[in-house]
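User: Can you fold this complex?
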Amino acid sequence: MKDVTFGQYYPRDSFVHRLDPRMKFLFLIAYIVAIFLATNFYGLAVCTAVLIAIIALARVPFGKVLRSIRGILVLLIFTALLNILFVDGETVYAQWWIFVITREGLLFAGLLSLRLVLLVLCSSMLTFTTTPVALTDGVESLLTPLKWIKLPVHALALVMSIALRMIPVLMDEVDRIKNAQRARGADLDRGGLMHKIRTTIPILVPLVLSALRRADELGDAMDARCYMGDKHRTKYKKLHFTWRDLLAFLVGAVLITGVVLLRIYLPAPF
Amino acid sequence: MKAIEFENVSFCYEESGAFSIRNLNFSVEQGEFVAVLGHNGSGKSTLARLSNGLLEPDEGTVSVFSRRITSKNLYEVRKDVGVVFQNPDNQTVATIVEDDVAFGAENIGLAREEIGRRIDFALRAVGMEAYRTATVARLSGGQKQRVAIAGVLALSPRVLILDESTAMLDPRGRREIVDVVTRLNKEKGITVLLITHFMEEALLADRAIVMNRGDIVMQGTPREIFARKEDLLTYNLSLPRISVICEKLRAGGMKIQDTLDVETLAKEIAACVS
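Assistant: Here's the predicted assembly.
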């Protein structure tokens, strides 16, 4: 974890990696819209094909991408079961007490699970192919219009990037505090849930205190380097739209239109 | 010309109520390399913070290149006086080295190309040009601190203050920092104020100042300062290791002159042995 800047950036020099982070954000939004506009398996098949193409283009190993489902596995099984057991339908396969298993229920569960999986996979592709710095730059740039309603966009983006930068520092700190507490006889590795919760307090309190102290020092260091908010501030790294981004934009547009057309002309779930 | 000038400056922290600096008069000439020595709580860090307007004196005036620091010219003053702090982890803003070095230059509104040039210059000056796109978190303490110096140099300051910047480093990291700073002073003519409690680091300075309880208690060339061993000990400062070695050798019966230079000591020992 300490080795990676944060999250799961997978360094490669690929088409997808070189896309403008703003375009990737917009594409992700378009993709999510497409997933939810698709009411049948044809639409979702198109979405899946697009995702597979993206993963192949980005040259990120499929196994690595698929592993990001683990985080939502419980949710996935739970929603699928709920749909299988409770959705009413005409073709009943089995029935017991208040539970019915129907053709429609199975289909609906399949549809919903596939959507969830695609959603998570596409989102994780964003973090696989974009560095945290590029992500925050992208967010700042995309939120710029909100400066109109006096939203401190620059400050928010800075907060986000400092938070990302501090993660490895604070992780080291947690290790240090844990060791310090162990040296004082704290039992952090055994015990039930309640015991675990209780033992986090002597770790959390010093961690928060130290984070505040660090924030104070960082503020001084930023002041000393002439930080005055975004007043006459310039940016060293500029984001550029290229032909790649145009292409990604077109793919996104075609995807949404295609899914809508499929929805109109092939309304059946199959 | 005086780079930094303190006139009758007093400052006390609100929480403690005790004076951290009392009626201090002191100045640093342009191009000078001054070491400020002192035990914890001697007021030496307060001195650094007063020099670039992070703190405001309760009494007296602080001037930078003949301009009195006021709340209106802080921005200009900070362009001239760069401060590197103690903990490298608490002064880097960005994840990537070049982004962090760019931070100061971005703040003063330089053009993109100029920022690029400043990053080149600053990283080369601290010998970190090979790490331009590296992740800050993966660097060693000494390297992180060199990046912090580069981040300050990107503002092209005329004065560089190191506020105990070597305190958290291992001996090798300390060596790296002192070398870089000495080179900046000799080659680029940057005025250096090195605040430390390691005596060895003061050896290369033009002038050394010893602070105790908010006052300057000793002043002179490093040699003059280190010659007054008893005084140093009363201010809770330890002697440079080389002085201690000289003393011990003399106590053991060798006829050795006091020196601060390793080569000279080696020759003297060789002469004694043969």
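Strands of chain A lie at 92-96, 99-102. Confidence is low (pLDDT under 50) at residues 1-6 of chain A.
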